Amino acid sequence: NPRVTPEVTRDVCLLARMMAANLYYSQIEDLMFE
User: Is 3 strand, coil or helix?
Assistant: First the structure.
């Protein structure tokens, strides 16, 4: 696929990492305030 450049791959990986970090953060926050 010519549209999948290294930049696109990097951006998708960064986005996935940020989403995972946000998910972990919200779960930890929930545990802190239980």
Answer: coil
Domain map (residue ranges) of the chain: 1-33
Q: What is the pTM of this model?
A: 0.69
Q: Retrieve residue 31's tokens.
A: 């545990």
What is the distance between the alpha carbons of residues 33 and 31, in angstroms, rounded to a whole number? 5
User: CA–CA distance from 15 to each of 2, 23, 25, 28, 32 (Å)?
Assistant: 21, 12, 15, 20, 26
Alpha-carbon span 22 to 15, nearest angstrom: 11
- pLDDT 10s digits, 2-32: 999 999 999 999 999 999 999 999 999 999 9
